[in-house]
Structures are given as C-alpha cells and as structure tokens.
Fold each of these.
Amino acid sequence: MKNVYVNDFTRSVKAYYEELRQFKVLSREEERALIIKAKNNNTAARQELVQCNLRFVFEIAKRYTGHGVAIEDLIAEGNLGLFKAIEKFDLGQEIRFATYAIHWIKFYIKDLIKNHYATRVLEVSEEVLNSN
C-alpha cells in the first residue's frame, strides 16, 4: 500500500487537518486530569480530551486509505473508537491514553473496512445471481 499524505486529500479534508493543528498535544498530567474529569461527566473536559486527540485519529485513519472507504468515514469511525477509549480507559494503568486509544481507534476503523468488504461481496453476489 502506498503512503498517503495530506496533499492527496480533498480540500475539505485538508482544511480539517489544518484545523486539527490548533489543538495541543497533552502532557501526561494534563491527559490524566482531563480523563478524571471526563469520567465524572465533565463535558468540557471530555471535549478537550477528544479535540486534543483528533489529529492522532487522523494520522491512524490515513494509514487505512485505499480500502474502498472514504477518508472521512475512516476518521468518523476512528473518532467513535476514541470515544470508546475514553469510556474504557483505566486510570490505574501506567500507560499514556493514546497508547490505549490506538487499539480502539484501529478496531473501529478495521471493523468499518471489514463491513464495507462484506457489503460489497453481497452486492456483487446479488448482481451475479440477478444477471442469470
């Protein structure tokens, strides 16, 4: 699979990427403080935690382009994985949030791609059956 760079994307995806650059990378302490607040239903903390990790989701999603799924859909699905990671993250772990979140983000993206292929196979199968 070829490497994909931001220059290969549509104008809207490029604009989205540029927007993400405004959010800072969190330190371990900032991250943990936001996770504690987010787990206590602080929506502002949750929003900041998500915003500061959206660029991370983008970087992971762009690795999965070329599988017949639009980058926008890969990013959206990766964002769902990020939300799940916030929900499931155990503060007792001695790992950074991004290290934990990468597994959820990839899971959601890979699941989308798998479902896309399964749907495509069904469509092709129906076309073949209907053509006879």
Note: The mean pLDDT is 88.
Amino acid sequence: FMWYVYILECCDSSFYVGYTGNIKQRVAVHNTGRGAGYTAARLPVKLVWHEECSNKAQAVQREHQIKKWSRAKKMALVSGDFDKLHKLAKRQKT
C-alpha cells in the first residue's frame, strides 16, 4: 500500500500540501469542498505534484517538511527545477 504527499494548486494560485493513501479520491474530495477548510474556500483545485512514500509516517514527515518551505521552493519542486530547489535550500553557516 503506497502513501502519497501531494501539492494542489488552488484557484487563487496558492498551494495546499497534504498526504493520502488514495490520491485520485483525495483530490476529488477536495474538489467537493469536503477535503479541508483551506481548499474548500479556494475551489477548484488541481493536482500539480505528488510523490510516493513507502509508509504513512514517511508521508506525514515529508508533508510537514514541504509545508515549511517558501512558495518559491514549492514552485521549484512542482516545476521539477531541482537546481533552483537546491539553490533555495537554506544552509546553516558554521
């Protein structure tokens, strides 16, 4: 059984990050207005990115990681621009 982390683009161009065990069904639920309060106020939504995870814990961890990212970093992930994603990653100076 696979779990997924996903990014939806809302009608106002904002992003919503979530996780699920059934991505097609979850996106459909979001589009009925029953998925989350955030997306219900910004319909319709469309799936713009997803990633498979081997278990729920991994999906939850990845969701929390991506939710903390800047919009620019999420846009780089969605567009597959891994060079830009790498450049946007914050680095701790030692």
Note: The beta strands are 3-9, 15-20, 46-53.
Amino acid sequence: MTKEQYKLIEEYMLQYVDKAAHDELHTYRVLNNALKIAKSYKNINYDVLITSCLLHDISRKDEFENKKLCHAIEGGKKAYQFLINRNYDVNFSNHVKECITTHRFRSNNQPKSIEA
C-alpha cells in the first residue's frame, strides 16, 4: 500500500467518524492491535488488513439512525463501493468487504480469512 492509498482510505474513514460511537482513535487502536496480532501469523495480506481496519466502522452512524441496519454489513457494502469506484481490484474489494462484514460476527456470519 502506498502512502497515497493509505491517505485516501484514511480520509474516507474520517468522513464517517461519529464522536457519539467510535471516534477515529478507536479505529487507530483497532488497526494497531490488528498489526500486532498479525505479526504472529504468516501470509497476511496487510493491504486488506489495514484497509479493513480503517473502514470497519464507517456505517456506525447509519446503524444508530436505523436500528434495523447492521453497521458491519452496511459498512462492508459501503467500503466495497468506495474501493470499486477507485479502481481497486474486485477480489481485493470483496476481501475487504468480507472482513468488515464479519468483524462483528455472530454464529451465522463467521470470518473466513485470517485478515477477518
């Protein structure tokens, strides 16, 4: 991931920060913890991991405004569209979507990748 790509993703995340839920410091803590955990594993796709961490809560506000929505599912969709609109690879975009969608997994929505 280039510095420019990181900044683009970070700026997108910052648009959706909701101080009432999880602020940007929460997102940076999640990223930092994920990077620490990832050191214990092999074959981590760090671009997917970093992107997923930065974007994992972009639909928190949507969920607060409509309790029928799940921020993880909505966030996955929103992140996918953001990435596709910026010409990211479909497989990469889907992987990020899966990570975000399952980050708050329940028994019916378990993570399928090491990054998730």
Note: Residues 80 and 94 are 6 Å apart (CA to CA).
Amino acid sequence: EEVIGELAAYGATELLCYRAERPAELANRQAEAWQPLLDWLALRFDAPLAVTSGVVPKPQSPAALSALRAAIAERSSWELAPLALATQASGSIVLALALAEGRADASAVWALSLLDELYQAELWGEDPEAAARREAIRRDIGAAETFLKLLRRG
C-alpha cells in the first residue's frame, strides 16, 4: 500500500502536465511528445490529467487520481518494483506506466522524461555532470524495462 500511495502521488504533479510557455519550439515539442501519452492514459485507465503552463500546481481531479491509483494497485508486487524504479528515475508515473504496458520503450521514456533538459543542452551545449546524471537515469529506466520483460516471459 505504501508503494502504491507513493507512486499514485506522482499523478498530482505529473511531469507531462507541466508545459513551457516559451520558447515556442520547446512548448511545441512538449505538446507533440507528451500529449499522446496523456491521451493514452485517459483512454486506457480513465484517468484524464489536466495540463497547465508554468510551474504553478494545477489540481488534478480526484476521479482521475483515483483511477490512476487503481491502475497502479492492480499491479503485482513484482511489477511494482520496476514501476517504482521507472517512476522515480523519470519523474513520471505516466511514463512508467507506458513502459510497463509496452506503450514506450526505455529509450523513449528516457528522452521524454528529459525533453526540457535535452532541449537546453541542444541550445547551450553539454554539461558533463548533467550528462552523467542523465546516463544514470538511462541505466535505471533500462533496468526497469529489462525486469518488466523478464516478468512477461515468466
């Protein structure tokens, strides 16, 4: 129950729901990359999450958060472990569920979770410390994907 609660709490501040207003190119990238996954979440789990611009929190509907919690709670303990790893690494329960459901692979989840940061690196150049941190995130998401694949085979 504790893990389910921790993972469900990500829905209240879901990464994919907070969009940049500027620059327009980043805002467009976010909308094109993230909105299809939010649409999928709404259809798959009946958990439509509200999108906002900027960093001011926008409350999510209790019904959507409840549906999201139910989607997490239906997972086995074995599935919760990689789901938790992917959620914590990516900062997104939506991306972690997409990975768990085979909707996105580890490479896509990694890139989607770091879309803003990768955009900034394109503009301003690479920071070695940030690159090392991103590589650690890549490994964690990859490990979660491997675990999930092994569970599907079993």
Note: The chain has a mean pLDDT of 96.
